Each structure stands twice: as C-alpha cells, then as structure tokens.
C-alpha cells in the first residue's frame, strides 16, 4: 500500500510512527517532530508524527487526557506546516471524524474499540489511511475480521498494529508469531512502547518497563514488520501520560539506527516463512 505517498509493506523499508503519547504543548510537539525528522531524513525512512488530542482510555478519571480537539488539531496543523511531516492521531466513538480527517493524514483506532463494527466502518469511510490497533484481548487471526468489516464499506489502505496481549493482571506480552499471521490481512506495525506498558499497574495510572522497549523493537524487526510505532518524550518521567513506557527522545537515534540496519538485513531476500507456509 501507499502511506503518505510512500510504498510500505514487508518488502519495503521500515517506516516510523512516533511522538508523545498525548499532546502537551506546541513547543513539545515541534521539538519531538523536528528531532525525529532529522534522524529519519538521515536514515532515509518515512516518518509520521503521532500525538493524541484526547485519550479516553485512562486508568483514572483524573488522568490527563490531552488539550482537546480544537487545540490539538491546531498543534498538528502547525507541526505539518513547520516540520513538514505527515501526522497521525487517534479517534473515539464521539469524535467528529470529518473535522479530524480534514487535518490528519493517518487516523488511528484505539485497541479497545477494534470490535465496534459501526465505529470501525465509520472511520474507514473517512478515506484516510487507518492504523488499526489490535485489541489486547484479540488473537492475531481475529484481526482479519476487523479488516474485512472495514473493506466491506471502503476498500482502502489499512495497517494492523500489534500492541501486546493481556496476560494476567496489569501485564502484556507480545507474540512475535502474530506479526507473521497478521501480514496476511494488512501491512503490520509493531508498537514497541505500549507492549511494555503495565496497564493500571500504578493504581491510578499505568506503569511500564521502559528498558524493554529496545528488546521488543529489535525482536519485531527481526520477525519482519512494515513499520515501527514508538512513543517518546524529552523527559519521560515528567510526561503527562504514559511516561513509564515512553522512550527518551535522546535515545531515538541510537535505537533507530540499529532497527534500520536490522530491517535491511531481514528484507534482503524473501522471508523463509512465506515458502514454508505454502509448502
């Protein structure tokens, strides 16, 4: 498929979706976007800036949710204009989709809503590429049904994003086999930061194992993915949302250099599992 004018897929170079979990200010968004843009330009990969204007899935009703749609879309418009990158945000059942689609290049659907047929089909009809977050309660093969629901109303461009599977209380695991399985339905993106999240692990907020971000990111690229999703912040411990599972912005270049090298090695020739599955 084409994403923001670039070919993406298992036979194409890795692309990156990255930014703060939730938009905090214009200055922060510009700092993150411009820093990563410089890195990805040097590495020659597509970069899509990510930022949420409203996060409904919160551990507590008192948790920070974002600046709201009006301010959030202004921030995203400014990032597009000043940094020159496409932008992605997530939407919810009560989001005015037309208003979002007029600004946002790629729309993301939250993991907990992936089975909501009316919602997923409404998002599909926006005409924007959609990054579909896999539910924490969904097997990889079930995501084929989700893509089918969307293509029934709008044959279009869809990505499937792995973000971990619920495994006991306050814990997630990532099954690398699922990355291969979901390739049958759409190009696959691996969310290296939400997979290390400990949902609700701090009681009124989620915890996370930040040190495991590079471990799972390397494993996913080795398994073969089309894109990488990461949340990052200049000072994760001061982030207003999901700091424990955010990568420090200062570490982004080092990790991306490794991932791009691994991606080139893995995609140098057709993946062996494709031949084995057809034999």
Percentage of residues assigned to helices:
25-40%
- The count of DSSP E runs of length 2 or more, i.e. the number of strands, is 15
The major β-sheet equals:
8 strands, parallel, barrel
> What is the radius of gyration computed over CA atoms, rounded to a whole number of angstroms?
17 Å
Specify the overall morphology.
Answer: globular
Average the pLDDT over all residues and give the rounded result: 94
- pLDDT below 50 for ≥5 consecutive residues: which ranges? none
From N to C, what is the helix and strand string? Answer: EEEHEHEHEHEHEEEHEEEHEEHH
Strand composition percent: 15-25%
End-to-end C-alpha gap: 26 Å
Main sheet: which strands, in order across? 3-4-5-6-7-8-11-14
Question: What structural class results from the helix and strand content?
Answer: alpha/beta
How many helices does DSSP assign?
9
Describe the structure.
This protein has 279 residues and is α/β, with parallel strands linked by helices. 35% of the residues lie in helices and 18% in strands. The chain has helices at 26-43, 69-83, 97-101, 117-124, 143-153, 176-182, 213-223, 252-266, 272-278; strands at residues 2-3, 6-7, 15-19, 47-50, 87-90, 106-109, 130-133, 158-162, 165-166, 172-173, 188-191, 197-198, 207-208, 227-233, 247-248. The chain has an eight-stranded parallel barrel with strand order 3-4-5-6-7-8-11-14, surrounded by five helices. It has a two-stranded antiparallel ribbon with strand order 1-2. Strands 9-10 form a two-stranded antiparallel ribbon. The two termini are 26 Å apart.
């Amino acid at each position: 498929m084409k994403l923001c004018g670039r070919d993406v897929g298992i036979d194409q170079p890795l692309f990156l979706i990255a930014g703060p979990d939730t938009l905090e200010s214009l200055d922060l968004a510009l700092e993150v976007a411009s820093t990563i843009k410089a890195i990805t330009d040097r590495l020659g990969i597509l970069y899509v800036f990510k930022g949420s204007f409203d996060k409904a899935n919160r551990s507590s009703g008192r948790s920070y949710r974002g600046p709201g749609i009006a301010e959030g879309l202004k921030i995203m418009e400014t990032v597009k204009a000043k940094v020159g990158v496409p932008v992605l945000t997530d939407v919810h059942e009560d989001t005015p989709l037309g208003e979002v689609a007029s600004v946002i290049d790629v729309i993301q659907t939250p993991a907990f809503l992936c089975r909501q047929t009316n919602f997923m089909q409404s998002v599909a009809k926006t005409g924007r590429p959609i990054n579909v977050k896999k539910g924490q309660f969904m097997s990889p093969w079930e995501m084929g049904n989700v893509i089918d629901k969307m293509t029934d109303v709008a044959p279009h461009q869809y990505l499937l994003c792995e973000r971990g599977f619920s495994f006991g209380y306050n814990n997630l695991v990532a099954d690398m086999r699922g990355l291969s399985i979901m390739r049958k339905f759409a190009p696959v993106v691996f969310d290296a930061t939400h997979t290390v999240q400990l949902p609700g692990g701090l009681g009124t907020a989620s915890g996370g194992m930040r040190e495991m971000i590079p471990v799972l990111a390397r494993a996913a690229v080795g398994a073969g993915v089309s894109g990488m999703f990461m949340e990052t912040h200049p000072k994760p411990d001061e982030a207003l949302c999901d700091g424990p599972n955010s990568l420090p912005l200062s570490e982004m270049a080092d990790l991306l250099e490794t991932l791009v090298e691994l991606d080139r090695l893995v995609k140098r020739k057709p993946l062996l599992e494709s031949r084995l599955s057809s034999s």
